[in-house]
Each structure stands twice: as C-alpha cells, then as structure tokens.
Amino acid sequence: MCGIVGYVGPQRALPILISGLKKLEYRGYDSAGVSLLGPDGPVTSKAAGKIRELEARLEGVPGGEGPVLDGAGDAQVGIGHTRWATHGRPSDTNAHPHSGCSDDFVVVHNGIIENFAALKEDLVARGHAFRSETDTEVIPHLLEEEYRGDLVRAVLRVVARLRGSFALAIMARAEPDRLVAVRKDSPLVIGLGDGANFIASDLPAILEHTRRAYILEDGEVAVLTRDSVEVLDTAGRPVQKEEFLVRWDPGQAERAGHPHFMHKEIFEQPDAIRDTLSGRLTDDPPGVRLELKLSAEAAARMPRLFLVACGTAYHAGLVGRHLVERLARLPAEVEVASEFRYRDPVVPEGSLAVIISQSGETADTLAAQRHLRSRNVPVVAVTNVVGSSVAREADQVLYTWAGPEIAVASTKAYTTQLVALTLLAIHLGRLRGTLSDEVTVELVAGIRQLPALARQVLEQAPAVEAVGRRLAAARDIFYIGRGLDYALALEGQLKLKEISYVHAEAYPAGELKHGTLALIEDGVPVIAMATQPDLVDKMASNMREVKARGAEVIAVAMEGDDEVPRHADQVIWLPRTNPLLVPALAAIPLQLLAYYAAVERGCDVDQPRNLAKSVTVE
Ligand code: AGP
Questions:
Q1: How many Å apart are CA 275 and CA 165, to the nearest integer?
Q2: Whose CA is nearest to atom 5 of ligand 1?
Q3: In what order do the strands lie in the sheet with 3-8?
Q4: Whose CA is nearest to atom 10 of ligand 1?
Q5: Beta strands in 269-350 (DSSP E)
Q6: The one catalytic residue among 2, 184, 264, 495
Q7: How far apart are CA 171 and CA 6, in angstroms?
C-alpha cells in the first residue's frame, strides 16, 4: 500500500504535493519522492525514509527551490508518492516516481504488477536499461515503447499489458499540460478544484483544496488538465461520473470514513489477502509459486521445521504448524520467540526456521532469529515490512502484502500470515511429494476464493456487533476449540483482552474438564470454535458440557453444519470452504467481536493501554 498524489493547476505544485503526501503517510512511509514538470521536462527528487527526509533534501520547502529541483521549483504540474515497499528494499533508487531510459515519462504506482518479471525480460532484450528493483519501472519503459504522439492511447495500450493491481499517476514531457490516472484494484480519487485538479490515493490528501471528487472505479482512466477531468474506460470510451461530496472531517477521512484504524484494517482483509496471493498461484498446472530457493532434495531431507514468533504472529505459527504437518508430513515445532532462545533448543541439521513478524522489528523475535542463524540454521522470514531487521537478516523472505497496519491489534497482518503459511505448507508438500495433484488443485481453487469469502464474512458484521456489544459486560469469557480451532481460539482471546480489557482464556476444548470447567457458571460466555467437520462431534460434547453448567454458548461454524446449532445459543456462520482454509475466515468474526466489545466499553481501540505496535525491547 502506497500513497499517490498529483496536481495540475495555477499554483506551485511542490508544497501541494508535499502536504498531500504527509496526509497519506499512514499508507506507507519507507521512502518518498516527487516529480515536477519544469521548463526542461520532468525533474525528480526521491529519498529513503519518511517524507521529512524528502523535505530536507528539497532544501527549503515550502520555498522549495533547492538545487536538486533544477529550476523546476515553480512548476505547476507534478506527481508524488510515499512508498510501502513490495518489490525492492526501501532506498532512494527504488523510491517513486520512476522513469524509463529517458525522463520522457514519469510514473508513480500503488499495487503489484504480477507479470513484471516477464515484461522486464522482454524490455531488457529490446535494449531498455533498468535502474531500480521495482515492478513499477516496467511501466515508463513500456510507455516509451507504446507512445505514438498520444499519451492517453499509450497508457491504454500499456495498461492492457499489465496484470495485477495498480493505481497509477503518469506525467509526460511531450504533453506538459496533463496528468493521466489509472485505477485497477487499488484505490484512487480525483479531486475537482476550481481551475486546478488533483489525484490522490485517498481523500485526506485533497481535502484542504476541495471537497468535490470522483471516486474512480476499476478499469477507469482519468485525464486531468487545469480546467477539465475526463474519465474513460479501458477501451477509451467516455464514462459519466457522479461527483462525490466529502462530508468527513480530516481524521475520519484518513481512516477512509471508518471509526478506527482497526475497523478499517479488518475491512481491508479481502484486499490484503488478494495482494498476498498476487503472483503466487499458478493455473497450469494449478499450484503455488513462491519466491523461495529450496530444492526438492533439501525439502525431502528436512528433519524438522521451526516456527518462531510472538503474540498474534505466534498464533499464526500454530496454524502454520498444523498445515505443514498435514500437507507436507514434516514435523514442525512452534515456539514463542522469548522462550525459544533461552532453552537451548535442539535443532537437527537440515532443519529450516520460519520467523513470523508483522513489523520485522520485534526484539524477542529478532533475537531468536539471530540465535538460529548463529547455529547455521537457514531462516525464512514471513514479514510485512520490506527492509525491516527481520527481513534484512533472514536468508530468504516471504512477504505478506497487507500494507501498513496502524492499529496496535493485529488483524490483516495475521490473516495474511495465515495465507502465506498456507502457501508455504503447499509448497513444501509439493516439494516433498506428500501432496497429490488432486488435493493441490482443490486447495488452490479454495485459496482463490478466499478474498471473496472474506468479503462475505464481513457482511455479517452487524450481527457480530450485537454479540460483541453484549459481551462487553462479561467478567470472563472462555474460547474453546480443537486443532486449528484451538489456534484460532487463542488468537480470539488475545484480541479481546488486548483491546477491551475483558478477561479471556482459550482452552483446547477437551482440556476444560481437567480443571477450568470449575469456572463455568450461569451466564459465562463461551465462544466455541467448531469449524472443523471431523471434530464437530467432539466439539458438540464440549459445548454440551459447558451448557449444562449454565454457559452461554456462541459458536462459530461452517455453513451446512446441522449439529452445532443444537448445542449453541447463537451461531456465527462462515461460508463453506476446505476446512484447512477456514482460519483466515474464522479470524474475522473474532476480530469483530473484540472490536465491538472494546467500542462498547469506551476503550481506546487503536492504542490500547500499556501496549505498543512494535515491541522493540526484550
Ligand atoms: C497482536 O494484536 C499484538 N499487537 C502483538 O501480539 C503482536 O502480534 C506481537 O507483538 C508480534 O509483533 P510482530 O508481528 O510485529 O513481530
């Protein structure tokens, strides 16, 4: 997730771009850049780090006429970008805007170009020289190939060659009075000013200039001059747009109208899952393609897999272990990072370690990773932050592409970790020959459905809200489950505790009777995770057990199950899918339950007491 801004109008573009970028910094903040259309063509300045680093480089913003701008400081047309790296680490060179062999075309991009590798190979063979490691850079090079005197036509031809998700803002030396914007699966709005027009990833960037906007739909292309905005479809036909009048205050706008970042991030999960899958599923034959170097021989000989992480990421590891053992028949251990390094673990030669961390900066996780590497254990990092310490120090990285997660409580990072670990388990299963073609095809088909199914689960938010608000009054809440459902129960109780401060515990459902059952009395809420068909009968017994002691049972189950409703006071239904893929869906109602309980209790949802987003101390 990155932030895009563009301006064409009568004022100096630079201060408008910089202030717009600052409003979008929540979308990404590892590097930033601007391009201004000066008298001699585009002039670009970029810097790794936050936007203030870029400002420092531009010497004198809002004066903005430092030598670096090469006389373009007064330009009235420009584009800017704040980056959240996906392809290529954060650096000056990988920062946007990007141009091709010349500076004739300048592009900023949000999203992922899935087929960039093939396009790049082709372009290199045709003599194009690339400067960055990004997927984005193929676009200005393609524009150089496709431009025949009409920027809009060239953009349409280039867009037809791109696969993946993208929002683009494009500027061309030969057509200095216009900007072109494109949206496919990545948000983009056009701000409609008086004698000036704007491009932005999100409304906060334009609100100090205008409250009138076009919200672009997928496949729409906007052509902006000072006095006009024309919207076209991908065939170049005009589209009639309705103006959107923004009524949000600036804080609401930054959260895209959501009351909290956590709410926004919960609702971003279908897109985060889609992005994490992007380019990693194959059609022919159906399978997964991961950017990992691991030979079939090493996979076959691998004695053990270690998954190490903290908090929510540890809970993702528990799901990962289950999937790796099931699909790759590989013994796997999951351990809390702060425990792992101090117990002098036995790691058989040939083992692989998977370090899971949203931030990539968690001190305990990093220390465990260093401990493993000092013993020559190869490490694959599953992280959301390109260039983070965990990513830099790992041997290989499998990124989750969830975009920045601002709320302390992890939501979309967790579900994308689950997706990444599912892909890893399938990959290992294929390499080790334990996963048949038939099961692979079935799993890949199910995985493709996940973004749409996650959207269906989110549609039930109003029903879950009612339960969450009611649970806010409880003193203790118990979460129970078996197998994958136990791993989910652990994540559900952590989410509730950390943001609502209601006491909660998770138990393997079969373990209650060994002690904790003594705590069940009239009206105690029990969240029963019962999503796994082969364990539903066992879960039914456990639900009966707590119900008989007066518990209020709220079950989470898969549609079509007729056993669970007999034992629950209420059921939250999930759409049917392969049981191994349920966790990424079942996590969503658990997040919503915690969220609404916290809201009902008046808690600071995004910044719960005593906690920090990134725990960089041991
Ligand atoms: C979960 O909601 C927490 N914020 C916390 O448990 C978190 O998952 C943990 O601190 C690990 O963080 P990381 O993924 O950035 O390493």
A1: 8
A2: 311
A3: 41-48, 31-38, 77-83, 3-8, 197-200, 189-192, 212-215, 244-245
A4: 311
A5: 281-283, 286-288, 305-309, 332-336
A6: 2
A7: 9
- The DSSP bridge partners found for residue 530 are 557
| Ligand 1, atom nearest to 409 Cα | 2
What are the pLDDT digits (tens) for 174-217? 999 999 999 998 889 999 999 999 999 988 889 889 999 998 98
- The answer to whether 169 touches 79, Cβ cutoff 8 Å, is yes
User: Over the chain, what is the mean pLDDT?
Assistant: 93
Q: How far apart are CA 315 and CA 379, in angstroms?
A: 19
**First and final C-alpha spacing in the chain:** 29
Q: Ligand 1 centre and the CA of 497: distance in Å?
A: 14
pTM of the model: 0.80
603 catalytic? Reply is no
CB 311 within 8 A of CB 491: no
Taking only the tens place, the pLDDT of each residue in 471-494 is: 999 999 999 999 999 999 999 999
Region at 542 (left for phi over 0; alpha for psi -120 to 50; beta for the rest): alpha
Indicate if 613 belongs to the active site.
yes
Beta bridge partner(s), residue 37: 42
Which whole-number Å values give the CA distances from 337 to 362, 390, 398, 414, 526, in the listed order? 9, 13, 19, 17, 29
Q: What is the pLDDT of residues 387-423, one digit of tens each?
A: 788 998 999 999 999 988 889 999 999 999 999 999 9
Catalytic residue among 50, 513, 538, 613: 613
DSSP 333-377: EEEEHHHHGGG-----TT-EEEEEESSS--HHHHHHHHHHHHTT-
Distance 281 CA to ligand 1 centre (A): 27
